[in-house]
Design a protein that fits this description.
There is one protein chain. The chain is 8% helix and 45% strand. By secondary structure, the protein is mostly beta strands. It folds into 4 domains: 118 residues, Sandwich (Immunoglobulin-like); 117 residues, Immunoglobulins (Immunoglobulin-like, Sandwich); 141 residues, Immunoglobulins (Immunoglobulin-like); 156 residues, Immunoglobulin-like (Sandwich), CATH 2.60.40. The strands form 8 sheets. Strands 19, 21, 22, 23, 24, 26 and 27 form a 7-stranded mixed sheet that branches. Strands 30, 32, 33, 35, 36 and 37 form a 6-stranded antiparallel sheet that branches. The chain has a 5-stranded mixed sheet with strand order 2-8-7-4-5, with no helix packed on it. A hairpin with a 7-residue loop joins strand 7 and strand 8. The protein is flat and about 145 Å long.
């Protein structure tokens, strides 16, 4: 290259630096080319290259798994608990603030704080004995203090006493309440005094006294009240009750109670009433004195030290081991016109246990030992067996057993007994040592039986009797030697009833000539030809109502149900699957079909087409005829059956026996 000529790339040589700056060299070379006269024409515009979207060299989704830190490192549990407690404290503080604001707002604008005097600033104190003697005067100290800034005008002290309180000056006058005028009580003023009354109640009971202060304020017509209560306990009763009577007895044996009502106070008890609440099964024989009404006695005034006695006699029924409670009460009434105790002053509960009778008795009807009521049909023979057993630990001598027949009138001539005697004058069967030697001396635990029989009345004799029942009451008496070697008479009782079952009858009758629906077809019936009949069901009943009665019958396969029946309102249905006809009768009243009354009836229409195999026979028209129901008097289920009805319909007017057989 000629000397002095500048090489076009000389300026672009890399610097002799240890770290060449290539970017800087490129810029310098470009500048030389642009400002050089020889090189600038060589620079050409390069075509522009369109921008392209370059795909990212790194994926859009980038996940980096970090090691999980323990929760305690992020937020310890104590921080969460502290936040919860702080939040609760803040809520409680806000609630308390709102509640206090509402309370004081109400108090000062609407409540007691809005008035110049508040009942809360009035002190009422009552002092006296915590235990009082019932029936004796008692004094109470009452004090009232006004701590308000204003006076209490027209103040009245109102004392409400418990029920039965009497005046201390007149024990016969009731003292339900007392009003004492205190006038005006100035601010800071005090009023006190003593009240006296006679309180009545049962020992150990508590009673309350209500003390109220009624007052007005200046320039106000409203009445304000402040009150307090005072409780006391009764240390004793003004009356006492004592009972003389057995705590154990035998069912049916007479027992006696002597109830003594005595005064327990130094003052008279006015207008005393006495009541006896007798248990179930106790039957009163006599009372001394007689009650004023029911089980209420008026004893009048009882003075200090005075006693009054009420005697009650009777018998009790029950099973061995049963316990009966007799509750006796004495007290006073508010007015002489009252028919009940208004204030109870004393009461007592007497427990009585029913024990085994000295002679255990049982009655068996037709060998049935079930107690209560037996059932026998009209004209049926009833066999009665009376069993006995000595339940004592000592022998029984001269035992006598009597069976009393009452209620239904039976024929005395039908009463039979091999070991006893029937006394027709009072309808009694009697056994003693003359008829049964074993009754002369019964050792401990000895058993035996006594027997008799009778005939129930026939249906004709029961036609006019409603609910016929015969009661058999067996009583036994005997003697035992007591611990003092004195003969003691004992008694025992057993009762059994025999009800007469209702004479219920079911009759089924076939009709052709008297067919209420009209008959068709040949008579006598002919093979392969249909003949129609009517079947009539008749029900009669004597003494007892029969409930839920149903009549059922079955039609053979060769008999057709026509769907016609009478009366039209009867509940009669036919089951095509088994050929059963059902008549739901319902209630059959007593004396239906007897004493000239009409029986209960229903009729159905059927048709029979005999087969040639039945020529010369009398085919069945209706079979399996039954009646079921429940006897309302005996509560027993009853059932009756009727004979099958065939083509031999004897009883149909105009029917001849020769018409009963199927012909060819």
């Amino acid at each position: 290259m000629p000397e002095g000529k500048e090489h076009p790339f000389d300026g672009l040589q890399p610097p002799k630096d240890d770290k060449p700056d290539f970017e800087h060299e490129k810029i310098e070379r470009l500048q030389r080319a642009m400002y050089s006269r020889s090189l600038s024409p060589n620079i050409k515009d390069k075509p522009r290259r369109e921008l392209e979207e370059l795909p990212p060299q790194v994926g859009e989704d980038w996940t980096h798994h970090e090691r999980k830190l323990e929760s305690s490192l992020i937020a310890p549990r104590t921080i969460g608990l502290t936040r919860y407690i702080l939040r609760a404290v803040i809520i409680a503080a806000i609630t308390f603030f709102v509640g206090a604001l509402a309370f004081f707002g109400y108090y000062f604008f609407f409540g007691a704080g809005s008035t110049p005097a508040s009942p809360g600033n009035i002190d009422i104190s009552v002092s006296g004995p915590l235990q009082v003697q019932s029936g004796e005067p008692t004094e109470l100290q009452v004090a009232v203090v006004n701590r308000n800034r204003v006076a209490l005008e027209l103040a009245d002290l109102v004392i409400t006493y418990p029920k039965g309180t009497r005046s201390p000056t007149d024990h016969a006058t009731d003292l339900p309440s007392q009003r004492i005028s205190l006038g005006t009580i100035e601010p800071g003023g005090r009023r006190q005094g003593t009240v006296s009354a006679v309180f009545s109640g049962i020992e150990g009971d508590r009673a309350g006294i209500k003390v109220e202060l009624e007052y007005r304020l200046q320039n106000s017509s409203a009445i304000f009240v402040s009150s307090t209560d005072y409780l006391m306990t009764f240390a004793s009763s003004p009356l006492t009750l004592s009972i003389e009577g057995n705590s154990e007895t035998i069912a049916g044996q007479p027992i006696e109670f002597k109830v003594t009502v005595a005064s327990n106070t130094d003052a008279p008890v006015k207008d005393v009433l006495f009541t006896a609440n007798l248990p179930f099964g106790f039957t009163v024989i006599s009372n001394d004195p007689k009650p004023q009404a029911g089980n209420l006695w008026t004893l009048g005034d009882i003075n200090p030290g005075q006693k009054k006695v009420v005697t009650i006699r009777g018998t009790i029924s029950g099973e061995t081991g049963d316990e009966r409670i007799f509750r006796f009460t004495a007290g006073t009434r508010t007015t002489p016109q009252d028919k009940a105790i208004s204030t109870v002053l004393t009461d007592y509960a007497h427990h009585l246990t029913v024990s085994n009778p000295f002679l255990g008795l049982a009655i068996l009807i037709n060998k049935d030992a079930s107690q209560g009521t037996a059932v026998a049909g009209p004209g049926e023979v009833v066999n009665v067996s009376v069993t006995y057993q000595n339940n004592l630990s000592a022998p029984i001598t001269d035992a006598v057993v009597v069976a009393q027949l009452s209620g239904l009138d039976i024929d005395g001539a039908t009463v039979k007994s091999n070991d006893g005697f029937y006394r027709s004058s009072d309808k009694v069967v009697l056994w003693d040592k003359t008829t049964e030697p074993a009754l002369a001396n019964l050792s401990t635990g000895e058993k035996g039986s006594l027997n008799f029989s009778f005939l129930m009345p026939a249906s004709e004799d029961l036609k006019d009797v409603r609910d016929p029942k015969l009661t058999i009451t067996v009583k036994a008496a005997g003697k035992r030697i007591s611990e003092t070697n004195v003969p003691e008479t004992l008694q025992a009782t057993a009762v059994q009833s025999v009800r007469a079952a209702s004479d219920l009858q079911l009759i089924a009758q076939g009709l052709y000539y008297s067919n209420p629906f009209g008959s068709s077809g040949p008579m006598p019936p002919k093979a392969n030809s249909e003949t129609t009949y009517a079947i009539v069901f008749s029900l009669t009943n004597t003494t007892n109502e029969i409930q839920n009665s149903v009549v059922k019958a079955t039609l053979p396969a060769y008999v057709r149900w026509t769907g016609i029946y009478s009366p039209s309102g009867a509940d009669i249905t036919f089951n095509q699957n088994d050929g059963t006809v059902t008549w739901k009768v319902g209630t059959i009243d007593a004396n239906v079909g007897v004493n000239g009354s009409l029986p209960k009836q229903a009729a159905i229409a059927i048709g029979i087409t005999p087969s040639t195999s039945q020529i010369g026979q009398q085919p069945v028209l209706v079979k399996s005829i039954t009646l079921t129901g429940k006897d309302s008097a005996t509560s027993l289920n009853v059932s009756r059956t009727a004979d099958d009805v065939t083509t031999n319909i004897i009883g149909d007017q105009g029917f001849l026996p020769s018409n009963a057989t199927v012909v060819k």
